[in-house]
Write a structure and sequence with these properties.
One of its GO terms (cellular component) is membrane. It holds the Pfam family Sugar_tr. It comes from Vigna mungo. The protein is mainly alpha-helical. It has two domains: about 425 residues, MFS general substrate transporter like domains (Growth Hormone, Chain: A); about 45 residues. About 80% of the residues lie in helices and about 0% in strands. The protein is built from 21 helices and no strands. The longest helix has about 50 residues.
C-alpha cells in the first residue's frame, strides 16, 4: 500500500513538473529554439538588474551627496559597496547554484536585489543607503555567475556564444537605462525603477525549465529528459545529446567532491588560469572606474557638464555589444577579445594624451597667472580641443570594451570548467572578478587625482598585456560542445 501511494505521489509530481516545463510558446514542427530564446530572455532579466545596480551611481552622485550630505569618500564607499556585496555573493554563488539549482539561485538573488532597492529608496542616512547598496551587490554577485552558466547549459552549441553574449548585452542596456533615466528623474525614483527587472525575473522563472545538465547532475533523470525536450522541441531527437550529457556527468560523478584546494590539481590548473586570467584582464583595463564615475571623468576632461558625455556613453554600449553578440559565433572568442583589447588600448591612450595635454596647458596658464591670452594661438586651439579628444578616447574605449572584453570572459568562464568543479571554480573566478572591480572602482578617483594621464596609460598597458595573455593561453571554444571543450583543455 505504501509503495502504491509513493508511486501515486511520484506520478502527480511528474505531471505537475511536466506542465511547468512545457514550452510557453509551442515549438515548430521541425524543432524550435523558441523555448531556448524565452529561457535566455528570462535569465538575462537578471543581467539587466545587474546593469541597473552597477550604473546607478554614475548619474546620481551629485544629487545623493547633496541630499544626504555625503563627502566624496563616503560616496566612493557607497559606489564601491556594490562590489563588496558582490564578492560575498560570488563566494556563495557556486554552492547555492549547485545545491538548489540555477532557477533557485536566481530567485534568491532577486530577493536580495529587491530588498536592497527598497532600502535605497527609503534611505535617510548613509547607513541605510550603504546597506541597500550592499544587498543589491550580494544579489548581483550571485546573478553574475548563475546567468551565464544557465545560458551556456541550455543553449545548443552553435548558438551558445551568441546567446551567452546577451548576458553582457542586457548588463550594458541596464547600465544605459540607468544613465539615461537617471538624468531625468531623481535618485529615489531611479531606485524604485530598479525593482521592475527583478519582478520580471521572478515571474519569468515560472515559465522556463531548470538547466538539464544540473538536473542530470543531481540524478533527476526524468526531469532532465523533460527539460531537454522542452528546450529542443517535441519532434527533435534528443537521444544523442542526452546520452552525451549523461555519459559526461557519470564520468565526473565517480570523482570525489572537490574543494577549493582541489582546483590547483594539474588537471584543473589550465582552466583555472584561463578563467582567473580573463577576469583579471577584464577588470585591470579600468572599466568599473570609468563606468562608475563617467560624469566626473568627462567634467575632469573639460566638459561643462557630464550629462552629454554620459548619454553618449550609454548609447555607445548597446550597439557594440549587439555587434559582439553577432560576431561571437562567427569570428570566434579569441580574435574578438584581442581586437577588443586593442581598441581599449587605443581609447585609453588617446584619452591619456588628452589629459596630459590639458595638464601641460594648465601648467603654462598657471605660469601666466591663468591668462589664456598669453598662450599661443595653437595652444589656445588645442586647449579647446582637449575635451573632445578625451571624450573621443573614452567612447572608443567603451565601444571596444563592449564588443569583446565585456562579454567574452563571461562566456568562456561558463564553458571551460568541468561540471564537477563548476560551482567551486566559478565562485572563485567571479569572486576575484568582483575583487578586481572593487579595487578599480575604489581607487579610480584617487588615481585620477594623482595623475589622470598616468591612470589612463596604466589601463592602456594592461590592455596590451591582455592581448598577450589571450594569444598565449586562451583556447578557441567556438562551435564546440561543453564536453568537447573539456577534452580540448585536458589534452
Amino acid at each position: 500500500m505504501a509503495i502504491e501511494q509513493h508511486r501515486d505521489v511520484e506520478s502527480v509530481e511528474a505531471t505537475k513538473l511536466q506542465s511547468l516545463q512545457e514550452p510557453f510558446i509551442p515549438p515548430e514542427e521541425n524543432g524550435s529554439i523558441t523555448m531556448v530564446l524565452l529561457s535566455t530572455l528570462v535569465a538575462v532579466s537578471g543581467s539587466f538588474t545587474f546593469g541597473t545596480c552597477v550604473g546607478y551611481s554614475a548619474p546620481t552622485q551629485a544629487a545623493i551627496r547633496e541630499d544626504l550630505n555625503l563627502s566624496l569618500a563616503e560616496f566612493s564607499m557607497f559606489g564601491s559597496l556594490v562590489t563588496i556585496g558582490a564578492m560575498l555573493g560570488a563566494m556563495t554563488s557556486g554552492r547555492i547554484t549547485d545545491f538548489i539549482g540555477r532557477k533557485g539561485a536566481m530567485r534568491i538573488s532577486t530577493g536580495f536585489c529587491i530588498t536592497g532597492w527598497l532600502a535605497v529608496f527609503f534611505s535617510t542616512s548613509s547607513y541605510s543607503l550603504d546597506l541597500g547598496r550592499f544587498s543589491t551587490g550580494y544579489g548581483i554577485g550571485i546573478l553574475s555567475y548563475v546567468v551565464p552558466v544557465y545560458i551556456a547549459e541550455i543553449a545548443p552549441k552553435d548558438l551558445r556564444g551568441g546567446l551567452a553574449t546577451t548576458n553582457q548585452l542586457l548588463i550594458v542596456i541596464g547600465m544605459s537605462v540607468s544613465f539615461l533615466i537617471g538624468s531625468v528623474i531623481n535618485w529615489r525614483q531611479l531606485a524604485l525603477a530598479g525593482l521592475v527587472p527583478c519582478i520580471c525575473l521572478v515571474i519569468g522563472l515560472c515559465f522556463i525549465p531548470e538547466s538539464p545538465r544540473w538536473l542530470a547532475k543531481v540524478g533527476r533523470e526524468k526531469e532532465f529528459q523533460l527539460a531537454l525536450r522542452s528546450l529542443r522541441g517535441r519532434d527533435v531527437d534528443i537521444s544523442h545529446e542526452a546520452a552525451e550529457i549523461l555519459d559526461y556527468i557519470e564520468t565526473f560523478q565517480s570523482l570525489p567532491k572537490t574543494t577549493l584546494l582541489d582546483l590547483f590539481q594539474s588537471k584543473y590548473v589550465r582552466s583555472l588560469v584561463i578563467g582567473v586570467g580573463l577576469m583579471a584582464c577584464q577588470q585591470s583595463v579600468g572599466i568599473n572606474g570609468i563606468g562608475f564615475y563617467t560624469a566626473e571623468t568627462f567634467v575632469a576632461a573639460g566638459l561643462s557638464s557630464g550629462k552629454a558625455g554620459t548619454v553618449a556613453y550609454a548609447c555607445m554600449q548597446v550597439p557594440f555589444t549587439i555587434l559582439g553578440a553577432i560576431l561571437m559565433d562567427r569570428s570566434g572568442r579569441r580574435p574578438l577579445i584581442m581586437v577588443s583589447a586593442s581598441g581599449t588600448f587605443l581609447g585609453c591612450f588617446i584619452a591619456g594624451i588628452a589629459f596630459y595635454l590639458k595638464a601641460r596647458l594648465q601648467y603654462k596658464m598657471h605660469l601666466y597667472c591663468h591668462d589664456k591670452t598669453k598662450l599661443s594661438k595653437d595652444q589656445s586651439l588645442l586647449l579647446e580641443w582637449v575635451p573632445i579628444l578625451a571624450v573621443t578616447g573614452v567612447l572608443i574605449y567603451i565601444a571596444a570594451f563592449s564588443i569583446g572584453m565585456g562579454p567574452v570572459p563571461w562566456v568562456i568562464m561558463s564553458e571551460i570548467f568541468p561540471i564537477n568543479v563548476k560551482g567551486t571554480a566559478g565562485s572563485l573566478v567571479v569572486l576575484l572578478n568582483w575583487l578586481g572591480a572593487w579595487i578599480v572602482s575604489y581607487t579610480f578617483n584617487f588615481l585620477m587625482s594623482w595623475s589622470s594621464p598616468g591612470t589612463l596609460f596604466l589601463y592602456a598597458g594592461f590592455s596590451l598585456l591582455t592581448i598577450l595573455f589571450v594569444a598565449k593561453l586562451v583556447p578557441e571554444t567556438k562551435g564546440k560542445t561543453l564536453e568537447e571543450i573539456q577534452a580540448c583543455i585536458s589534452s
